[in-house]
C-alpha cells in the first residue's frame, strides 16, 4: 500500500469538516491564503510543493490594506471637519466676545467627536474580541484531532500531559482576556474620551494606568503559558522518544521472522500519521494567521487614521481633542498588540504539537 493511499484512508475516517467551517469563518471578512483544505496541505507536504505563494499573500494583504484605507478615510474627514468647526467657534468667541453660545457649540462638537471615536473604537473592539474567540474555538477543535494522532504515533506522555494543560491554558486565557483585559482597555478608552471634554487632565493618568495594567497582564499570561508549554513539550518529547525506540527494538529483535517486517510496516503507518498531524497543525496555523492578519490590517489602518487626524487638527482645533485622538490611536494599537500576543500563544501551542514526532519516531 502506498503512502498516499494510507493517508487518504486515514483522512476519510477523520472528522475535519469543522476545521474547514472555521476556515470559512476566518475568511468571511477577506481572503489572505486563498481557498485551501487540510487535504491540500497534506498533499503539498507529501509532494514537497509550497503550500501557498508568498507573492499572492503579499498581494492579498496589500489589496485588503487599500480597501480598509478607503473605508476608514471618511472617519478622518469627519473628525477634521468637526474640529474645524470647533476652531471657528473659538475664533468667533474671541472676535464677538460671546463665550456662552460658542462654548455650548464647542461642547456639542466635542460630543460629536467622542461619538465618532467611540463608534469606531467599538467596531475595532468587537472585531478583536471576535477574532480571539474564534481562535479559541479553533484550538478547541484542533486538539481533539491532533492529540489522538499524537498518541497514536507513540506520544503517550505528550498527549496525556500537554492536552489537559493546553486546554486549561486556552480556557483560562480566554476568560481573563474577555473578562479583565478587554474590558480594561475599553474602560481606559472611555476615560480618555471623557477627559477630552475639559482642558484639564482629570482621569487621563487613571486611563493610562488601566491600559498599562491590561498590557502587562496580557504579556505575563502569554509568557507564562507559552514558557510552561515549551518546557513540558521538551520533557515529554524526550520521554516519548525513549518509549518508541524501546518498542521498535523489542519488536524488531524479539519477534522471530516477521518482527522486522512488522516494525517497518508500523513505521510506515506512523510516518503517515505524522504527515497528517503536521498537515492539520499547519492548516490550524493558517486559520490562526487569517484570524490575525485580516483584523490586524483594519486595526492598523484605524490607528493610522486617528494618529494622522490628531496631527492635522492640532494647529486648527482643540489641543485637548488632538491629544485625545492621539491616545485613542495608541489604545487601538494596544488592541492590535493584544490580538498579536494571543495569536502568537496559539501558534506556539501548535508549533510544539507539530514539533513532537516531526520525524520518524521509531528510528
Structural summary, described in words:
This protein is mainly α. It has one domain (15-27, 37-42, 117-355). It has helices at 3-12, 17-26, 38-47, 54-96, 99-152, 156-195, 204-254, 259-313, 319-355. Helix 2 runs parallel beside helix 8, helix 6 (156-195) runs antiparallel to helix 7 (204-254) and helix 6 packs antiparallel against helix 9 (319-355). It is elongated, with a radius of gyration of 27 Å. It starts with a helix and ends in an 8-residue tail after the last helix. The relative contact order is 0.16. The model is unreliable at 358-363 (pLDDT under 50).
Average residue pLDDT? 78
What count of domains describes the coordinates?
1
Percent range for helical residues?
over 70%
Number of helices: 9
Question: What's the overall geometry?
Answer: elongated
Give, in order, the helices and strands: HHHHHHHHH
Distance between the termini: 21 Å
Global structural class: mainly alpha
Number of DSSP E strands: 0
Question: What is the element layout, followed by pairings?
Answer:
Elements: H1 3-12, H2 17-26, H3 38-47, H4 54-96, H5 99-152, H6 156-195, H7 204-254, H8 259-313, H9 319-355
Brief account:
The protein is built from 9 helices and no strands. It has 363 residues and is mostly helical.
Amino acid at each position: 500500500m502506498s503512502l498516499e493511499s494510507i493517508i487518504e484512508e486515514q483522512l476519510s475516517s477523520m472528522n475535519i469538516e469543522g476545521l474547514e467551517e472555521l476556515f470559512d469563518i476566518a475568511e468571511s471578512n477577506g481572503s489572505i491564503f486563498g481557498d485551501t483544505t487540510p487535504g491540500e496541505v497534506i498533499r503539498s507536504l507529501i509532494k514537497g510543493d509550497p503550500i501557498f505563494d508568498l507573492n499572492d499573500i503579499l498581494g492579498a494583504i496589500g489589496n485588503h490594506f487599500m480597501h480598509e484605507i478607503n473605508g476608514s478615510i471618511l472617519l478622518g474627514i469627519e473628525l477634521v471637519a468637526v474640529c474645524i468647526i470647533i476652531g471657528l467657534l473659538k475664533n468667533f468667541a474671541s472676535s464677538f466676545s460671546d463665550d456662552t453660545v460658542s462654548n455650548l457649540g464647542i461642547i456639542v462638537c466635542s460630543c460629536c467627536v467622542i461619538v465618532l471615536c467611540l463608534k469606531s473604537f467599538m467596531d475595532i473592539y468587537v472585531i478583536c474580541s471576535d477574532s480571539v474567540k474564534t481562535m479559541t474555538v479553533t484550538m478547541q477543535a484542533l486538539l481533539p484531532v491532533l492529540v489522538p494522532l499524537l498518541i497514536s504515533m507513540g506520544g503517550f506522555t505528550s498527549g496525556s500531559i500537554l492536552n489537559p494543560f493546553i486546554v486549561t491554558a486556552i480556557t483560562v486565557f480566554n476568560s481573563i482576556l474577555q473578562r479583565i483585559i478587554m474590558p480594561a482597555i475599553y474602560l481606559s478608552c472611555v476615560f480618555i474620551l471623557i477627559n477630552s471634554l475639559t482642558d484639564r487632565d482629570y482621569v487621563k493618568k487613571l486611563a493610562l494606568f488601566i491600559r498599562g495594567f491590561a498590557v502587562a497582564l496580557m504579556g505575563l499570561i502569554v509568557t507564562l503559558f507559552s514558557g510552561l508549554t515549551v518546557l513540558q513539550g521538551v520533557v515529554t518529547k524526550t520521554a516519548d522518544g525513549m518509549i518508541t525506540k524501546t518498542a521498535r527494538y523489542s519488536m524488531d529483535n524479539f519477534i522471530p521472522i516477521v518482527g522486522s517486517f512488522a516494525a517497518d510496516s508500523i513505521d510506515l503507518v506512523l510516518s503517515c500519521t505524522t504527515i497528517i498531524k503536521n498537515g492539520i497543525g499547519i492548516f490550524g496555523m493558517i486559520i490562526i494567521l487569517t484570524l490575525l492578519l485580516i483584523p490586524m490590517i483594519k486595526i492598523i489602518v484605524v490607528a493610522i487614521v486617528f494618529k494622522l487626524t490628531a496631527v492635522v487638527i492640532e494647529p486648527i482645533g482643540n489641543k485637548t481633542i488632538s491629544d485625545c485622538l492621539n491616545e485613542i490611536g495608541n489604545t487601538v494599537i494596544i488592541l492590535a498588540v493584544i490580538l498579536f500576543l494571543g495569536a502568537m500563544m496559539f501558534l506556539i501551542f501548535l508549533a510544539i504539537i507539530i514539533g513532537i514526532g516531526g520525524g520518524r519516531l521509531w528510528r
